[in-house]
Design a protein that fits this description.
By secondary structure, the chain is mostly beta strands. The protein has a domain of 48 residues. It has one helix and five strands. A five-stranded antiparallel sheet has the order 4-3-2-1-5, with no helix packed on it. Strand 1 and strand 2 form a beta hairpin. The radius of gyration is 15 Å and the shape is globular. The relative contact order is 0.28. The mean pLDDT is 87.
Length: 79
């Protein structure tokens, strides 16, 4: 699973997990375990919601958070 931050039009960003990145022909994003970036509940969702479906036309952009494998990669360091 990939952890992402979804920026929805006129709303606070939502942090959650997706199974895979969407394809260009997709019209929806399925986000599991939705929460605010600080871990609190999203104000417009019920407390027991575990998955939301967001139409692509409501999304400004999606940030993909690095996984553990990507964090271990040592990049070029200039001294």
């Amino acid at each position: 699973m990939l952890t992402v931050i979804v920026h929805i039009n006129n709303e606070d960003p939502i942090l959650g997990e997706i199974d895979e990145l969407s394809n260009p022909e997709d019209q929806l994003v399925i986000l599991k375990n939705p929460r605010r970036k600080d871990g609190k509940d999203v104000h417009f969702l019920e407390a027991s919601v575990s998955t939301i479906i967001i139409p692509i036309h409501r999304i400004n952009f999606v940030e993909v958070m690095p996984t553990g494998v990507e964090e271990e990669i040592i990049s070029f360091v200039r001294e």
